[in-house]
Design goal:
Layout: E1 11-15, E2 22-27, H1 31-49, H2 53-69, H3 71-82, H4 86-111, E3 114-115, E4 123-130, E5 133-137, H5 145-156, E6 160-164, H6 170-182, E7 190-192, H7 197-205, E8 209-215, H8 218-230, E9 234-238, E10 244-247, H9 253-265, E11 277-281, H10 282-297, H11 317-333, E12 336-339, E13 354-357, H12 364-367, E14 374-380, H13 383-391, E15 395-396, E16 399-402, H14 406-413, E17 422-423, E18 438-439, E19 442-443, H15 448-454, E20 456-463
Helix pairs in contact: 2-4, 3-4, 4-5, 5-15, 9-10
Length: about 475
């Protein structure tokens, strides 16, 4: 719980969610420390933007190696600070290193000058130039990967990076800063801002910060975007969602159930792109629900260091309390609790694998994002009803569609109001594919060529030959 440690100065607090024990405290930076941080970031950016791209790429190759060399330490830290199972934590570190590899290999091509207006005789092209230091407000649920996903493209394109990480994973934040510096990145180019909200708002308004990226709640996104807009600065927001997992009557139920378990209960359900609302076409709804329930009953919640554990605790006590309130409210709204719905007794912040059925629009489990191990099942009368239910949300981040008819699938996905759709598969993120949403899930894109160019100045250059 993010309470204040008695006698300690105000700051970020990290507790082990498996035991509830205090891990560390990180006093907030004072105004003079923040001033030095921003000055160092600006100076490092000025040097970095003038560094040849080939030299930047060399740092990226070293960073990938550093992440792999420190994989066990980083994975242990992830598990200790936010409760991810150790296997998933190791996979997160490797995914981060692989993304850095991809950026090093493909970044130079994507950031190269791009010819334009080929039908004119003059030389016309677009250059993708850096814009400055970018402030990143990042979440706790993927404490290494989320940062690499943001910092990787931003820094390769020549920008600086100031990280405001979640208070409960500040150990991961400083471990990443050490990894960047050990890999040869200039001191100050990647820096950690550990401050209260008012100081963060002041940093956003500071002229040495060029833009802002945030992954978090819609409320946090609105606050940050408003502050950035007042300063006429670009922002990128990834704000989570209520992703639909649509299963049509002709779907491969074996595959859909396996994928559905992974898509809902990985990382204890604490994933933005996780399936939240299972929308089942009526002919298969009963069979899917019963078989899905059987598989959920087999899941083991417990010590994330135990290889047999399927998912560990919720990252913080207040977050677990919030999930429980959402489940209770959903039942009060009229949903039926088929399984779970309780906090696990004992130390730590564990919550049972939970399945709700009879969920309809207007209920908490349908309308709100539940960031925990809770599956909400809704029955659709037909394909049209399934599409309507999927789009009946203020959010639009991702979604899943299961059907044997791929031609039908191609038509349906164009009607789904989401930033991404996964057909006959679970959700995935890949450096080749953009990530982002629509509606209250935010705007802008990370990863792929979109992410590499998101925080650049697309400078148009037109050179005419002298007469």
């Amino acid at each position: 719980m993010l309470d204040q440690v008695q006698g300690a100065p105000p700051g970020a607090i990290s507790r082990n969610p498996t035991t509830g024990a205090l891990l560390a405290t990180y006093p907030f930076q004072a105004a003079d420390e923040i001033e030095r941080l921003l000055a160092a970031s600006a100076a490092a950016y000025a040097n970095w933007r003038a560094t040849p791209l080939a030299e930047r790429v060399a740092c990226y190759h070293r960073l990938a190696a550093t992440l792999r060399d420190r994989a066990d330490v980083l994975a242990d830290l992830i598990t200790a600070e936010m409760g991810k199972t150790i296997g998933e934590a190791r996979a997160e570190v490797e995914k981060s290193a692989s993304t850095v590899d991809w950026l090093a290999e493909n970044g130079p091509k994507i950031l190269a000058d791009e010819p334009a207006a080929p039908d004119v005789d003059d030389e016309v092209y677009v250059s993708y130039l850096p814009i400055g230091s970018v402030l990143a407000v990042m979440p706790w649920n993927l404490p290494i990967w989320q940062v690499i996903r943001a910092a990787g493209p931003i820094m390769l394109s020549g920008n600086g990076f100031v990280l405001k990480h979640a208070p409960n994973v500040m150990g991961c934040a400083y471990a990443l800063q050490e990894a960047f510096e050990a890999s040869g990145f200039p001191s100050g180019l990647f820096s950690n801002l550990n401050a209260e909200n008012d100081a963060v708002a002041e940093a956003i308004a500071d002229p040495r910060i060029a833009a802002i990226t945030l992954t978090g709640s819609a409320r946090a996104g609105a606050a940050v975007a408003s502050t950035a807009a007042k300063a006429l600065k670009k922002s990128l927001l990834e704000l989570g969602g209520t992703d639909a997992f649509i299963v049509l009557a002709d779907a491969d139920l074996d595959g859909a159930i396996r994928a559905g378990i992974k898509a809902r209960f990985s990382n204890a359900g604490q994933v933005c792109l996780a399936a939240k609302r299972f929308i089942l076409e009526r002919p298969i709804a009963e069979e899917f629900t019963q078989r899905f329930l059987e598989e959920v009953r087999k899941l083991k919640v417990g010590d994330p260091l135990d290889p047999s554990t399927n998912f560990g605790p919720i990252a913080r006590e207040d977050l677990r309390d919030g999930v429980h309130k959402q489940v209770e409210q959903s039942v009060a709204d009229g949903a039926t609790l088929l399984l779970g719905g309780r906090k696990v007794d004992g130390p730590g912040f564990f919550y049972e694998a939970t399945v709700l059925t009879g969920v309809r629009p207007g209920m908490t489990a349908f309308d709100e994002e539940i960031f925990g191990p809770v599956a909400a099942i809704t029955v659709a009368e037909d394909v049209e009803d399934a599409i309507g239910l999927a789009n009946n949300s203020d959010y639009g981040l991702g979604g899943n569609l299961w059907t044997a008819d791929l031609e039908k699938a191609r038509a349906i996905v164009r009607r789904l109001e989401t930033g991404g759709v996964f057909v006959n598969s679970s959700f995935a993120t890949n450096p080749r594919i953009p990530v982002g949403g629509v509606k209250k899930s935010g705007y802008g894109r990370e990863l792929s060529h979109f992410g590499l160019r998101e925080f650049t100045n697309a400078q148009a250059v037109w050179i005419s030959t002298p007469a």
